[in-house]
Specification:
It contains six helices and 13 strands. The chain is α+β, with helices and mostly antiparallel strands and about 260 residues long.
């Protein structure tokens, strides 16, 4: 099966909004295989793992020893965990889209940022406040794109992502962020910006592409099922991580479109 080509309208939408949803990029059979692989890694949780209690976000258990403290938030280092994840990272529908959005055939996958399976469990999931991913990434240019691969329905009820269209183009003064570099909600100018947010509702196999400067947040999972997503971050080969920073700890991986999956 050939790759789904990106239309000019879609490319323009990404440039304008800082995000783009492409539907059904991952085949149902592959989604089922990924879900089975993830579930086998959740029970028991196979390291490296970040637990909800580790992030101290609103709604998270107070510690790993509190009720719900062993609730996984993300399975880290996804690329190295299984061939299924490596194939997913180089899916031709994804890579060919990135080639257009990033105007380059030489892409690198970061092993330092995202590169994980995100899980959101009922009962003990946390709320993620408004932020830009580039706030703690260090590259020559703040021009990276992440892919959020849905492995099931994502909606307001189970804590889907929220994004602010066009926010990747904004110059936001430091005083509008708090000490942890989350957007402050107590400022009138931020309230006006947050009023423009939209929910990213996805189905299994859909992929969200979003710019590293796009403001986004996520709610808690109030449904009765676990939400699973895979997240990778890419940059062009000539946009290098700054040495001796968190962005340069692990070597980045050259990525090209694999055989169709």
């Amino acid at each position: 099966m050939g790759a789904k080509q990106l239309s000019e309208i879609e490319a323009e939408q990404f440039a304008r909004d800082g995000f783009l949803i492409r539907r059904s990029l991952i085949q149902p059979e592959k989604v089922s295989q990924l879900v089975a692989c993830i579930d086998a890694s959740l029970n028991p949780a196979l390291a490296p793992v970040e637990f909800e209690a580790d992030v101290h976000y609103p709604g998270a258990p107070s510690s790993r020893w509190a009720e719900g403290g062993q609730t996984p938030r993300r399975l880290q280092h996804a690329y190295g965990r299984d061939t299924l994840f490596r194939e997913c990272a180089s899916n031709p529908n994804i890579v060919n889209t990135l080639n257009v959005l990033m105007d380059s055939d030489e892409l690198m996958l970061s092993q330092n940022h995202h590169n994980c399976v995100m899980t959101k469990h009922p009962g003990f999931s946390s709320l993620t406040s408004w932020h830009q991913d580039i706030r703690y990434w260090r590259f020559d240019r703040p021009e990276l794109v992440s892919t959020w691969i849905a492995l099931g329905p994502e909606n307001i009820d189970n804590g889907c992502l929220l994004v602010i269209p066009g926010s990747h183009k904004l110059t936001i003064q430091p005083g509008r962020f708090d000490a942890a570099l989350f957007l402050r909600t107590d400022l009138a100018e931020n309230e006006k910006l947050l009023a423009t947010s939209v929910a990213v509702e996805l189905e299994a196999g859909d992929v969200l592409f979003f710019h590293s400067r796009t403001l986004h947040a996520a709610g808690q999972n109030s449904s009765d099922t676990v939400k699973r997503s895979i997240v990778f971050t890419y940059h062009t080969k000539d946009n290098e991580p700054i040495p001796q920073t968190r962005s340069a700890v692990f070597e980045d991986i050259p990525v090209s479109a694999a055989a169709s999956i």
